[in-house]
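Worked example

This section walks through a single chain of length 525. The input is the sequence exactly as stored; nothing has been trimmed or padded.
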Amino acid sequence: MKNFLLALLSGLLLAFAWPTYGFPLLLFFGFVPLLFAESQLRNENSWKIFGLAYLSFFLFNIITTSWLYYSTAFGMWFAVLVNSLLMTLVFLIYHKIARKINFTGAAIFFISLWMSFEKMHLNWEFSWPWLNLGNGFSEYYSWIQWYEYTGTFGGTLWVLLVNFSIYKSLLLFLKYKDKTIIYRSMLRNVFLVGIPIAISLFLFYAEEEPDSKKMEVLILQPNINPYTEKYNTNDKSIGKLLVQLSEEKITDSTQLVLAPETVFADGTKLSQFKYSDANYYSKEIIVKHPTANFLGGISFFEVINDEAETTPQSNYYKEDVWFNDYNSAYLINNSKTEQLYHKSKLVVGVENFPYQSTLKPILGDAMIDLGGTVAMKTTQPDREVFTLNSGEKVAPIICYESVYGAYVSEYVKNGAQLLAIITNDAWWGNTQGHQQHLSYARLRAIETRKNVVRSANTGISAIINTKGKLIQQLGYEKRGSLLGEVSLNSTKTFYVNYGDYLARIAQFLAVVYFLIALTRRKRQV
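Given that input, the structure is written out below as tokens.
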């Protein structure tokens, strides 16, 4: 019962540390009860460890991401159960290795293995990095200004180092019954937690935003319910609404008008874009305001009649007919050519079918329906950057892509001076889903030191400065617009240049310590 309660406590500590409702200081204690329970059962049946770890991580996942249920019960349970399993397997591997190497080696191995797991979760086809530990500080952005050097993996390393420091002190105290161990531990951990926060606060208050060019941006929030309105409202009606919203606040100084993901959702043939309602109504805004650029989202498709021209991402329609389906961003200004970008970090199940050749015979046409369409989306290899009338460069980031730090940094490497996120978070209703998604955008601002402008169909649309602070926002389920000024800069931070280098080091260390463990006999606890 004691170990059961310890596992329960770990799950609750991790869950109640999470944004946007939690207090992230709890993350520094979250693993300690589970680690202690594991130490008490180290020489017993591994299934006990598996059960305790699964309980902890299940609670963590279900409390923080249960909002997925509002889109689909199947999707929520799949995400929660599978992600809990993956976290449990990481802990179980640690349990096996900790039997064979000393405390320090086991700690380094666990930290390295967990960071390697998070890195994998950013890149494989079942990608779901929502609960990567470094994300947990997104609401307390003044604590993590150093993410411009480390990215979120710096946060993960910080959390796990402090957990193992506290865990070691607990073991030593129980062994020697010496209160000075507790005092020294408290002092050490105050420094481990406090010094990074102090450095961050210095960066937050001492550094001004980069001296840069300013630009006026108009962000549109049409507030169209995707279940009852969006796919029952034609593009013509949407276009008229966007023009109306634009005219309410647009000025002669406005350079960028931003509209949400797939705001034009009818399905436009890619080769016929110039004749579409999206093109027509976007140009109506541009004709009236020639200095402006319109950036919005659209659903494209492309019909294929020759199987030789299909790709693994093409969808079969009927005999001798296939199609490519795109979730895209487009930019229109007073130049003759539109600019297009096709979303390339896809939501599992809804926009891609992971490991199709292996899983389709098992799952058939079942999908993890997290909202939207179940057709496989077609992606592109490069992070396209849009060029405005006056030469400024903007990153068109579509929805889920904004959760990926190194991925977003590729836009900056390609010249982006401003991050523009277009999204539709309405699938989950007024829950933590859209609030967490907005909160994670703060991390991208800090990592890249770029302003973020965010247009969300039903909210929350926002302007975020380079320090992660919300400058303006338009609340959930409100129709309207935001007019504000943002700064542009071409700075490339250390993180932009070197990406997830901490994760790469962790992968190397995990392999090294695993190989060391293979050569050792089982240690006695």
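What to look for: Residues 417 and 489 are 5 Å apart (CA to CA).
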